[in-house]
Every structure is written in C-alpha cells, then in structure tokens.
Amino acid sequence: MGATQSSPAETSIHQFAVKDTSGKEVDLGIYKGKVLLVVNVASKCGFTDRNYTELTELYNKYKGKDFEILAFPCNQFLRQEPGTDQEIKEFACTRFKAEYPIFQKVRVNGPNTAPVYKFLKTSKSGFLGSRIKWNFTKFLVGKEGEVIARYGTSTAPLSIEKDIKKALGEV
Question: With pLDDT > 90 as the criterion, what percentage of the chain qualifies?
Fold first, then answer.
C-alpha cells in the first residue's frame, strides 16, 4: 500500500521507493542532499489545521534551501484520512496551499507497515516504542538520509524550526 518492500539492510531513507498520488513510483534517492521532514498526515484530525498551516509555512520558508516535506496520508487513527489519494492531495493543495509532495496513503503501524515507515520507526523510537501514536508524527531526516529526530503529534512544526536550521547547517 503505497511503498515497495524493504530488506533489513537499509541505512538511509534514500534507499526506498514510494508511490505518489497518481500511483507513479518515486525513488527517495532524488532527495539526497536535502533535509526532509516526513509526516503522516490526516485531513479530519483535530491537529490538521495547525499542522498543515505550519508545514506550508516551513516549506515556503526553506524550500529554496535544500529542504523538503514528504507527506504520507494515513487512515489508521480513527479513520481520519478516509479520502482517495486524489481527494487527499486536492484537500492539502487547495485548503492549505501545500506544494510539497504528498504520497499514496500508507499504514504506519501493524503487519502491513510501509517499509519506509519501518525504517523511520526503527531509526528513532518514540513515546510508545517504535509504534506511531497518532497523526502528524514527524521525522527529521538529514541530507544523507539518516533520521535525526522524531516529534510527536502535539509538537507544532514551527517549534522544530531550530532543528531544521541546524540540519541545514544554518546554525
């Protein structure tokens, strides 16, 4: 569902391929040299407005500085992302002016977890161990594809701006 299979040898997010909202495979190696903020998004969550608004603000501020946001819709938390991939993309792009990539809906927990999320969770565990607790969990990934930090749902995107600047070498 939205990602290809992985082996346990991955050491970089750049070793994965995922599918965009039109079903086209995207090699995450194209993001080598960029700082990434990877987020599991949902359109019908209490955290939606703040997160999407601040993600768009961060993106607009840093997109020209080797920074990219990768959004992965997920419907695992109270079915708060029920739309089709196209509906999800349209929602984010129209309502929140999202210009960053939005990929196919994925599973972030359980036996069918997308391989890229297995990698992220194994690299940085959180409050519930490796399990994703809720929508809008964020992973900051360095230019070489290594996971630098993990942030929970209640961490506002703008509050991690200092970490983004540090990863970009601006501090």
Answer: 71
What domains appear along the chain, each with residue ranges and CATH number? 13-168 (3.40.30.10)
Residues that are catalytic:
45
Q: Would you state the structure tokens that stand for residue 119, as one six-digit string?
A: 């990698």
Question: CA 145 to CA 123: how far, in whole Å?
Answer: 11
pTM: 0.90
| Burial label, 12 (beta-carbon count in 10 A; 0-12, 13-18, 19+) | middle
Extract the runs of DSSP E, i.e. beta strands, from 48-131: 67-73
DSSP state of 129: B
Q: What CA–CA distance (Å, rounded) separates 153 from 41?
A: 10
State the distance between the two ends of the chain, measured CA to CA, in whole angstroms. Answer: 38
